[in-house]
Design brief:
25% strand, 4-stranded mixed beta sheet, alpha+beta, 5 helices
């Protein structure tokens, strides 16, 4: 079994932007991880610095972190959406993928897309998988596509673990793929794009978050970020929540950081939150202060070169 140290690998579920103003956390601690080398990609460094400055400005000037509810846990929403102008870099890139250009960028909520039984089955998969691993820092992931599983301060391949043999069955993967297809169709229909030109991409994973203090930088999930900047293949992001805000856990709200105010999404079992992955949707996750928060991140790309297949039981 090969174990990759978490300090030398980007976690598929945890991201960090070096922003001085952190909307989603009361913690002000920062870590620095310089990577010296003979090659310095100045253009990429400058681009990232400009992005970071932009994030800091937006976070700072978002009406003193004024929170406006976008989707409360207690309400059942058939569909709720808001349109936002696409960021220039996002729009420019999508011009290369005709048929995958949204009618308008934005975000959308669905509460009736996934059934109660499907949510229960997916939560059971997550609990079984994470029972043989888990981060020491409270933020754990399970990726059924790559096999990546948080394990202490590292990641292992769950399909290589002796104790995980026969842990999943064909029905597990059938339900997983069925729900993924529902989300895929809903995103394509809402944003007015071709289903055939929208592909599942990496990373797509289960997440489990508890109040346990972070042990490595990969455990710091609460920093503001842009998905397209973190994962270049992303064009559309979605989250399916498997537990309830205020019942199964405290904190852990999803927050869109806008210039006028911050819009909150309170997780609800079966709630799907989907959005375009460009800088028009800067966001973060509030720190979990109690209980356990389960969710699935399901990501999509317009680039067939970054497409991944559904996971199967025959690994």
């Amino acid at each position: 079994m090969t174990v990759k140290q978490r300090s030398s690998q980007k976690s598929p579920g945890i991201v960090k932007q070096p922003s001085k103003t952190d909307t989603c956390s009361h913690s002000s601690s920062e870590r620095e991880s310089p990577h010296p080398g003979p090659r310095i990609e100045w253009r990429r460094i400058i681009t990232r610095l400009l992005m970071m400055v932009g994030i800091m400005v937006v976070v700072y000037f978002s009406k003193a972190n004024k929170m406006v509810p976008f989707a409360a846990q207690k309400e059942e929403i058939s569909k709720r959406s808001v349109e936002i102008s696409c960021s220039k870099d996002y729009a420019d890139e999508l011009r290369h993928f005709q048929g995958c250009i949204p009618k308008k960028c934005g975000r959308v909520i669905f509460d009736t897309l996934v059934t109660t039984s499907e949510v229960a089955a997916l939560l059971n998969i997550a609990e079984r998988g994470l029972s043989v691993g888990g981060s020491t820092g409270g933020a754990s992931i399970l990726d059924l596509h790559s096999g990546a599983l948080s394990h202490g301060n590292a990641f292992v391949n769950i399909f290589k673990l002796e104790e995980a043999k026969n842990l999943f069955n064909a029905q597990d993967f059938k339900i997983y793929s069925h729900v993924k297809n529902k989300i895929h169709h809903a995103i394509a229909n809402h944003f007015g794009i071709s289903r055939s030109g929208l592909y599942l991409t990496h990373p797509t994973f289960f997440s489990r978050i508890t109040p346990v203090p972070p042990q490595t930088i990969h455990d710091e999930y609460w920093h503001p970020h842009v998905d397209k900047e973190t994962y270049e293949s992303f064009h559309y992001t979605s989250l399916l929540y498997l537990s309830d805000f205020g019942h199964h856990f405290d904190g852990g709200r999803f927050i869109f950081i806008d210039k006028d105010s911050n819009k909150t999404v309170e997780p609800r079992r079966g709630r799907v939150s989907a959005f375009t992955s460009g800088s028009e949707n800067l966001h973060c996750v509030e720190r979990v202060t109690g209980g356990t928060r389960y969710a699935i991140t399901v990501s999509f790309t317009c680039d067939p070169n970054h497409a991944i297949d559904d996971p199967t039981v025959n690994r």
